[in-house]
Amino acid sequence: MSLRNIGIVYRKELTDALRDRRTLISTIVVPILLIPAMTVGLGGLIVSIAKKAEKDIPPVMILGGEDSPRTMAALAKLPAVQLVPPSNDYATQISNKKLRAAVRLPAGFDAALDAGEPARVEIYIYESDLNSEIAAGKIQAFFQDLRQRTVEKRLADRNISMSVLRPFEVAKKNVAAPEKVSGAAAGAMLPYLVILMCLTGAMYPAIDLTAGEKERGTMETILTSRISRTHLVLGKFLLVLTTSLATAFLTVTSLWFSSRMAAKMFTEQLSKASVGQLHLAIRAQDLVVVFLLILPVAVLFSAALLTIALFAKSYKEAQSYISPLMIVVIVPAVASLIPGVELNLKLALVPILATSLVSKEIFTGTYHWNYIAIIFGSACLYAAIALALAVRMFQREDVLFRA
Amino acid sequence: MIEARALVKVFQDKKRGAVRAVDGVSFRCEPGRIYGLLGANGAGKTTTLRMLATLLAPTGGGATVAGYDVVKNPEEARANLGFLSTATALYGRLTAREFVEYFGRLHGLPEDLLAARREQLFTRLEMNEFRDRRCEKLSTGMKQKTSIARVLIHDPQVMIFDEPTTGLDVMTARAIVQFIRECKERGKTVIFSTHVMTEVEKLCDRVGIIHGGKLLAEGTIGELNAKTGMTDLEDSFVYVVTQAGGRVA
């Protein structure tokens, strides 16, 4: 094994890649410009949604209640909803989104409350419509409050303490650091993003250094030189790995800076919790461990992409082979985002998904060292197999000189 | 020296099955001589030369380049070989100087020797004017000079030219022909494949006529003409091919 020869190929490919506009765009420009634009855009979107939600007072219709002036008066005073006159086509209006919800008060509701008789209030909503659910929630809160006060009054009238109904309290206490809680959503997305960027960063150079070389006629030129095919493919592989990791690293760095920038920009317009969601709370040591875990995945991608692209005779043909690979990678990476998908021994052996799941846990401060060791070990094995396959493929003349 | 001994190459084709692209080709060429491989498109010239350049492994037979077996010692064979064809392109994003240096380093030249060879070649080939220009910006003639510098940088004993003038203008083609002649004068072993008869007549000491993967006839131009009873090489070539049941378009 001649490291000198591998180094010569690597340096040449690096020089070549740094002069190639397409590689520079996918490796440097996209992470540095696109990520901040997306983050700031997302912040702007959250601000506009939050402002709209504050301004939006949903129209709600009360059906019945003519004989319950007390409840009607209390409802009329509700600032969170706008009461509209009753109409028989309330269901159509709700379906058409002109009305967000309707409430049916039973006849003699006030009287029933006073007499201690049972009564049933119905709220009509358009299920799955968020605005309808919000309006119904506001009405529901009003009636829950009314029920609570009614119960308190009835117990007081009978000289019974409220503690009869609440013999004990249950309270949830948060032990996670506030930034962990607020950054959890971003932390879950991060491994998926890093894995995806590893793939996209490797994609263009892998095609360019194989099918691209065949198409341009330089593959034959290089194969006539003294260098062995093993050294050649290893030099090329190292370049693809470099662009893959550089793209992922620049994406995370760019995301970290832009999330801070967005959090600062929108501090005044948003609540503390919303700002927290923009703020990417990740510790440097977590990031280092995740990058170590991502390393064999990047090796796997780089070697696999080189192998697949080498089969193709042209750049276009290589693209058509590689596009389906995006789905193969995206599906397990997305699967890690599904709530309830937890790391276990079987999943720890599934490439990409395992790395994504364990990285998610690491970002929330949980280190399962046994799983980390299994995942790292299996990922290294897959990466070694892919690299051996790439080296083997470069020895095959029917692949190199496919007519 | 270069020697091919009963070289055979069989390709597996999905539609046609096993195809014998080269079928028992033997010839040899001594230092200071030019051997011309003459054949129509698809005759088996490029496959033969690719086997000699170790790009393809022979299915049968064998070959040596400067004494090195192309199967057992492919890297040593390539170290003593300069291979030039219209299919061997340049790296567009490298400058002419970077391109030539890259191949010099791949051939294991130490930096001081590489620099000396580079300067010598750039002066001889009049490349200094465009040495720091990217290959993608070079004219066809400049590209050919850069390719020549690439094959000469490690000073190989054996040179293989596979249809090196195809698609080139008259001036550039003449420069290539002149360069091949210079290789011979410097004592190199030269294998030259073409279907241009005038180039063969100008350059080659011996000629092999290849058709359907087989070497049908071999000798000096005079010997070939005498064997066929023709007065010029083109007629001799057509005669040999048609006698073998081939068709010359």
Judging from the principal axes of the Cα atoms, what is the shape of chain B? globular
Mean pLDDT of chain B: 91
Structural class determined from secondary elements of chain B:
alpha/beta
Oligomer state equals heterodimer
Strand order of the largest sheet of chain A: 2-1-3-4
Helix residue percentage of chain A: 55-70%
Strand content of chain A: under 5%
How much of the sequence lies in strands of chain B comes to: 25-35%
Q: Provide the structure class of chain A.
A: mainly alpha
The rough form of chain A would be described as: elongated
Q: What is the mean predicted local confidence, pLDDT of chain A?
A: 85
Description:
- The complex is a heterodimer of chains A (403) and B (249).
- By secondary structure, chain A is mainly alpha-helical.
- Chain A is built from 17 helices and four strands.
- Chain A has helices at 3-18, 21-55, 69-76, 90-95, 109-115, 130-157, 178-182, 184-208, 211-216, 218-223, 229-265, 272-278, 284-311, 315-335, 353-363, 369-393, 397-400; strands spanning 59-63, 82-84, 101-104, 122-124.
- Chain A has a four-stranded mixed β-sheet.
- In chain A, helix 1 (3-18) packs across helix 11 (229-265), helix 8 (184-208) packs parallel to helix 13 (284-311) and helix 8 runs antiparallel to helix 14.
- Chain A starts with a helix and ends with a helix.
- Chain B is an alpha/beta fold and 249 residues long.
- Chain B is 38% helix and 27% strand.
- Chain B has nine helices and ten strands.
- Chain B has helices at residues 45-52, 74-79, 96-106, 111-124, 140-152, 170-185, 197-203, 221-228, 233-243, and strands at 2-13, 17-29, 34-38, 60-65, 68-69, 81-85, 158-162, 189-194, 206-211, 214-219.
- In chain B, the strands form two sheets. Chain B has a six-stranded mixed β-sheet, sandwiched between helices. Chain B has a four-stranded antiparallel β-sheet with strand order 2-1-4-5.
- The radius of gyration of chain B is 18 Å and the shape is globular.
- The two termini of chain B are 34 Å apart.
- The model of chain B has no long low-confidence stretch (mean pLDDT 91).
- The chains are: A mainly alpha (403), B alpha/beta (249).
